[in-house]
Amino acid sequence: MATNEEESVSLVQALDKKSGFNLETGIYHSLVHLSEDDMIPTQPNLDTATYVLSQFPPLDQAESRVALIDSTTHERLTYAQLDWSTRALAAGFYHGLGVRKGDVVFVSSPNPLLYPIICLAVLSVGAVLTTANPLNTAAEIAKQVQDSGTKLAIAAPEEMHKLVPTKVPTLVTSYSKEYDNALTIPELAENSEQLEIPEAKPVQSDKAAILYSSGTSKGVVLTHSNFTSIMKLLKWSVNVSKSQNDIFLCFVPMFHIYGLVFFGLGMFCSGTTTVIMQRFDFQNMLKAIQNYKINNFPAVPSVILRLVKYPRGAYDLSSLRRVGSGAAPLSKEVADGFREKFPWVELRPGYGLTESSGGATFFVSNNQAMARSALSGRLIPCFSAKVVDVETGMTLPPYKQGELWLKSPTIMKEYLGNDEATAATFASDGWLKTGDLCYIDRDGYLYIVDRIKELIKHNGYQVAPAELEAILLSHPHILDAAVIPVEDEESGQIPMAYVVKASGSDLNEDQVIQFVAEQVAPYKKIRRVSFISAIPRSAAGKILRRQLSQSNQGDLSKL
To answer: Does residue 145 share a domain with residue 215?
Structure first.
């Protein structure tokens, strides 16, 4: 009978050193090994806020090093001011408002300079953070408040009216004449002494946040262990990319896992400077890059597409060095177009989801990214993956398409109060089923094909909307596009395209259909086209296909 040592040697020998695929277990492993300094913290009593604050620059540097800049007001916060404000606000929450460990604090706001302070202060008292898109309706907010068990809310003044019906005590992020009796976050912090918080700090297994992933009403429960793990991995990625001294731009919303992990918490662990845009505006983004000499920003595919389509020369973007892409797949056509237009900028797509705390794959070097335009990088340290046949449940080797399953210290604890959804998402041995169709190549690089549930079933074949969208976006007169299934009596479903065409273009339906037909197999052809002023997208840049499907028989001008 084989000993444990013999079994371990056998598994190592079965590991393909190029792909990270283990022939015996069917598992892909990260090919990156962390140094001792980069290892994920394992102290059982280490909470998120304590970890992040411990990573701030030393006091003699913190008083001069700028942490945050507001792109509109030009207000600046040093690391010392950020530290003081966080501790003062945390004391105000605990001693002034009675917020306790486990209480849920709801935040609905764009990206004010205060957003990271609010997040860190909430976590400092052991409370649980739940964030919402400020575009959500009053009904959607009421549902989240009830589902999460919110005890205290914080809102931008223009969002206050949506919280009134919930009867939850609510603070405003800044003074508003309409709500002049409401306590503001600055007032609470300024009038609070930094008294000790006597209650025991949260432990690694405690809830840190309840985030509601795009396209679903399920609350993703992330623990302090999840957050400290992803913070450490983010710090590693900054170090390995040599971007510690970059000036970052934040326009991705901090209510979303992408913005929260990067700018609500994570970038402070590397001592970087971030310029914050309260709301995304493309022209203001270009202006901020020029004015603040931005070197680096994480983006979404729709923003990268707009950069590709935007005329040269209006703004000086020469300071750019690195651009990340996440939240949705980036097509090869858009990636190639970006690199052609901005050859001096490193474009590094990645992959993650709310349920994995925003991380999973990453490009360590620009050379890797340039050689593989359509990929999402390799597994980051501490991640393992399976590619599983949707029909048989068998694990698949390189180049075979199946559902992506993940394991890592960053994987969520559960869906809040939804045992059925949790059980459906986790395999019996703890693997997270992502719902994404993918394959991994012989060098360990991940290709996301599409969401399994969004595949179009045409005459028994499966058609990936993302593939057709990438082709459509390569047309010089198409600014944006989305593809959805439309029910068809003969074939089951047919692909229908919604297209945003360039101003002044006379592009018609037949031309679009023919353009795609010349590049795909017959079963993948676009069968119908509708021109639209804008593709509905989530704040993270994902196409809201459900809106398009629901409006298929209605008035598209309302989208």
So the answer is: yes
